[in-house]
């Protein structure tokens, strides 16, 4: 290269460098342009109650659907199922016997989210959360405002309390205390009536799905009826961006189920995505989230005699390369993966081994 050509080369590359710094084109748009026309292998991960939901998600993705549309359609199956008492229709109610639902969605390509919390009488809060993303300047709507928004978009109000859920609520209420007038079925010979709430577990229930579509774009959704018999108005982690779910289209997607308060205090899903950005595998990042929950819990009422966090929390994650992982604080947790061929049950990594095994 002669001197003239060298000078011209330096001048040209310098101008190109400045243009790259000042160009409004985003890295995600560049990546999209680079992958345009390519087809990528889809994958989806969910909590253990998501078999049919994953099958629906993958069916739509294979037909070319955007990952967000697919995951919402997937969780709708569980929201509509009266036999799943942790989500949507048939979900366990609050302490007043009223079903309150939470949901959130996140769309990776546009880096936008939408959510609703403490919404009543609407069977599919995930659909409403998606509309919050698409049709408002907000991210989160709650309570009466969320209900009015849903009704404005044509969602019918429905009674979400099934006979099965009502029976569970009454059993909890009847056995809550000896100090009130609610009693369970009993005979004149029974002496220990009430104060046996430990026999009636206060269920945490949720479904989370994260997925990669054929365009290598990520999205996720979490939906729940929350903690059974909660104080009215209680909001868990599910509708809170960064806690119950988070996604970065350049890195990966994560979500959680279990004790929502632990995730709210630790922003676990956002942390998982950031750890994956730093090079951790999805499983490693999920284990780190478990360690964070354990390390930062200072309330002794939440710890067992060995100082271990007593409650279950499960994390799920996939990265941009299609790798996946899940972890629970306790041994025995599972999650589901659809690899484009079939749904597979996978054992979670865990921190603590159960003493009874």
Question: What does the model show?
Answer:
This protein has helices at residues 3-22, 27-35, 51-62, 67-79, 125-135, 143-152, 163-174, 260-266, 268-277, 282-296; strands at 43-46, 101-107, 112-119, 140-142, 206-212, 218-224, 245-248, 252-258, 313-319, 324-330, 334-338, 343-347, 349-352. It is of the alpha+beta class and 357 residues long. It has a single domain, classed as Glutamine Phosphoribosylpyrophosphate, subunit 1, domain 1. An eight-stranded mixed sheet has the order 4-3-2-6-5-1-11-12. A hairpin with a 5-residue loop joins strand 5 and strand 6. Helix 3 runs antiparallel to helix 4, helix 4 runs antiparallel to helix 5 (125-135) and helix 8 (260-266) packs across helix 10 (282-296). The longest helix is centred in the N-terminal third of the chain and has 20 residues, at 3-22.
Summed up, what is this model?
The protein is an alpha+beta fold and 357 residues long. Helix content is 33%, strand content 21%. The protein has helices spanning 3-22, 27-35, 51-62, 67-79, 125-135, 143-152, 163-174, 260-266, 268-277, 282-296, and strands at 43-46, 101-107, 112-119, 140-142, 206-212, 218-224, 245-248, 252-258, 313-319, 324-330, 334-338, 343-347, 349-352.
| End-to-end CA span | 73 Å
Oligomeric status: single chain
Largest sheet: 8 strands, mixed
Count of extended strands: 13
The value of Rg in angstroms is: 23 Å
Keywords:
357 residues; eight-stranded mixed beta sheet; disordered N terminus; alpha+beta; five-stranded mixed beta sheet; globular; 10 helices; Glutamine Phosphoribosylpyrophosphate, subunit 1, domain 1
């Amino acid at each position: 290269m002669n001197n003239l050509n060298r000078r011209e080369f330096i001048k040209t590359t310098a101008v190109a460098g400045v243009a790259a710094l000042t160009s409004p084109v985003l890295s995600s748009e560049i990546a999209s342009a680079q992958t345009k026309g390519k087809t990528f292998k889809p994958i989806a991960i969910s909590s253990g109650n998501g078999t049919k939901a994953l099958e629906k998600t993958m069916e739509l993705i294979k037909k070319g659907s955007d990952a967000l549309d697919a995951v919402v359609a997937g969780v709708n199956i569980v929201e509509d199922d009266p036999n799943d008492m942790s989500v949507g229709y048939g979900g366990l109610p609050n302490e007043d016997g009223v079903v309150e639902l939470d949901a959130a969605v996140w769309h990776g390509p546009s880096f936008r989210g939408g959510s609703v919390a403490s919404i009543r009488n609407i069977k599919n809060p995930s659909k409403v959360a998606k509309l919050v993303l698409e049709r408002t300047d907000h991210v989160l709507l709650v309570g009466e405002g969320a209900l009015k928004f849903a009704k404005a978009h044509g969602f019918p109000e429905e009674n979400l309390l099934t006979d099965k859920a009502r029976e569970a609520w009454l059993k909890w209420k009847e056995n809550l205390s000896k100090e009130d007038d609610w009693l369970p079925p009993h005979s004149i010979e029974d002496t220990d009536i009430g104060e046996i709430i430990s026999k009636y577990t206060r269920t945490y229930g949720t479904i989370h799905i994260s997925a990669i579509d054929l365009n290598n774009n990520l999205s996720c959704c979490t939906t729940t009826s929350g903690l059974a018999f909660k104080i009215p108005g209680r909001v868990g982690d599910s509708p809170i961006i960064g806690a119950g779910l988070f996604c970065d289209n350049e890195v990966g997607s994560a979500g959680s189920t279990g004790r929502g308060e632990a995730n709210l205090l630790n922003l676990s899903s956002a942390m998982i995505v950031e750890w994956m950005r730093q090079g951790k595998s999805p499983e490693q990042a999920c284990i780190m989230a478990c360690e964070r929950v354990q390390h930062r819990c200072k309330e002794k009422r939440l710890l067992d005699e060995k100082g271990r966090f007593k409650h279950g929390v499960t994390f799920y994650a996939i990265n941009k390369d299609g790798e996946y992982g899940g972890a629970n604080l306790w041994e025995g947790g599972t999650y589901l993966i659809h690899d484009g061929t079939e749904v597979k049950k996978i054992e979670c990594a865990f921190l603590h081994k159960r003493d009874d095994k």
